[in-house]
Write a structure and sequence with these properties.
By secondary structure, the protein is α/β, with parallel strands linked by helices. It folds into four domains: 127 residues, P-loop containing nucleotide triphosphate hydrolases (Rossmann fold); 57 residues, Helicase, Ruva Protein, domain 3 (Orthogonal Bundle); 90 residues, Up-down Bundle (Zinc Finger, Delta Prime, domain 3); 46 residues, no CATH class. Helix 10 crosses helix 11, helix 14 runs antiparallel to helix 17 and helix 15 packs parallel to helix 17. The longest helix has 16 residues.
Length: 379
């Protein structure tokens, strides 16, 4: 029998729960399906938010032949087979799950088929495509960002299963799934199969079942990386190394781990120990050039360093506060004193007047736009 998540998978956009910004009335994917617009795109978002479902609905709308591959196990030969396959006169749509796992050479190989329109590509990724997809391929695809499912959306999906779930069990699922419908449905199915009912107690028992193992596509993958980051944040190197070891033993992508270490170095350590970013970048580079099994040593070295480093989130918090002001106020006028007077007219209008910054002395006058003169982001 198919898994529960597959049995209740939506067949039309009207059945899709969540992602209203993409599939709601007048929104881009809704319009694309209704008008049968053919174009390549990438769905970027957390696991269990509807990427595969949307891809299948879109392919059906085009009356296209849909080919599904996982970049974890697929390669150039699989692309060749699809190109040579008989689609009975239909357009060919390739749904490439975890497109970030395709290396540069594989993406380069795919590019001309997408460019020529021989293949319509739908890529799915949990990673930022700006870093994971080569620029020529990315430039030929639109990027749609999916959000974690809300509490209301998860309620609707749980209701669709027709399984009896009381409030305590739903609250458990809500906390555990973190917006991932597939994760919630998998736990419900596990509890029902193993214990005959879905309660908070049976869900807890199912979670501890030896039948559940680390899943690099979702599930424990995200719980473990979360525990890993929080252990480094708490300056607990032993815990951080333990969670690192779990990921390494499970065959987790070392670049996935190293990338989060680079982010952590600036977000959580920041100004307290700026060399942390140098170390994290060096670990990432080592993982790129060496690979498993040896790069596990580089990861361990980096984790021990980052976990013991002093922590300071002031630069991160300052950036977020500044971004909030940009979003609220838009592009406020730059003070004339620090504008670039590149023409005679600009000089006459006062651009750059009074600026003597070349002496490198601290200025007492704020260079912020007038509306934000009293703002203090870095504290």
């Amino acid at each position: 029998m198919e898994p529960l998540a597959a049995r209740i998978r939506p067949q039309t956009l009207d059945e899709v729960v969540g992602q209203e910004h993409l599939v709601g009335a007048g929104k881009p994917l809704r319009v694309a399906v209704e008008k049968k617009h053919k174009f390549s795109f990438i769905l970027w978002g957390p696991p269990g938010t509807g990427k595969t479902t949307i891809a299948r609905i879109y392919a059906r709308a085009l009356d296209a032949e849909l080919f599904e591959l996982s970049a974890v196990s697929a390669g150039k030969e699989d692309i060749r087979k699809i190109i040579s396959a008989d689609a009975k006169g239909k357009d060919k749509v390739l749904f490439l799950d975890e497109i970030h796992r395709f290396n540069k050479s594989q993406q380069d190989f795919l590019l001309p088929y997408v460019e020529s329109g021989e293949l319509t590509l739908i890529g799915a990724t949990t990673e930022n495509p700006s870093f994971e997809v080569i620029s020529p391929l990315l430039s030929r695809c639109r990027v749609f960002v999916l959000e974690p499912l809300s509490e209301e959306a998860l309620k609707a999906i749980v209701k669709r299963t027709k399984l009896k779930v009381n409030k305590d069990a739903f609250d458990w699922l809500l906390g555990y799934s973190n917006g991932d419908a597939r994760k919630a449905l998998g736990m419900m199915e596990g509890a029902k199969t193993l214990y005959g009912e879905v309660t908070a107690d049976t869900l807890n028992k199912a979670l501890e079942s030896p039948h559940l193992r680390y899943d690099k596509k979702g599930e424990e993958h995200y719980d473990t990386i979360s525990a890993f980051i929080k252990s480094m944040r708490a300056s607990q190197p032993d815990a951080a190394l333990y969670y690192l070891a779990r990921m390494v033993e499970a065959g987790e992508d070392p670049l996935f781990i190293a990338r989060r270490m680079v982010v952590f170095a600036s977000e959580d350590i920041g100004l307290a120990q700026p060399t942390a970013l140098v170390v994290a970048n060096a670990v990432f580079r080592a993982c790129e050039t060496i690979g498993y099994p040896e790069c596990a040593i580089n990861l361990g070295h980096g984790v021990a360093y980052l976990a013991q480093a002093k922590k300071d989130r002031s630069a991160y918090n300052a950036l977020r506060a500044a971004q909030a002001d940009v979003q609220e106020h838009g592009n406020l006028p730059v003070p004339k004193k620090i504008r670039n007077p590149i023409t005679k007219l600009m000089k006459e209008l006062g651009y750059g007047r009074g600026y003597e910054g070349w002496d490198m002395q601290p200025e007492t006058e704020s260079y912020l736009p007038d509306k934000l003169k009293k703002k203090k982001y870095l504290k």
